[in-house]
User: Fold this.
Amino acid sequence: MGERRWRSVGESVAAAGVIVSLVFVGFEIRQSTVAARAEAYQEIGLTIAEFWYNDALNPELLDVMRRAELGDSLSASELHQARSRLNAILRIWETLWLNVDTGALPPEAMHRMGSWSQMCDNPLLTRDWDSFFRDRLGEGFKDYVTETCGLPS
Assistant:
């Protein structure tokens, strides 16, 4: 075999090596993306589970929330409790939204947590949007809430 032939074989082997390494890098990136997505789902799932578990341990707060959602009058401390709890729920939603917005989770992840329309229909959110909740959210999520819930921006 001549020198040209060996050079051609060497170039072919080198090209095949580059292709194999690119396939490997692509596979590793895909695996990393799958792992990051699973971690994001797990983190949000654990946060939600802990949140609901704590709710189950506090029937008085649940009663305050029910009354707030019905539009009943609340004392100042009850209103603070209700706003704080709703703000915590909004923060969980915002974390989920940020994961979707950055591409860590697919858009359908927003529907896995529960009913966003129930959040939009919450009288406490709609009543206190301007005076309390709007300024406590990040800009992108605030835009999402105003658009999907029909609240003033």
Summary: The mean pLDDT is 86. Residues 3-56 form the longest helix (54 residues). The chain has six helices and no strands. The helical segments are 3-56, 59-70, 76-101, 116-120, 123-133, 139-149.
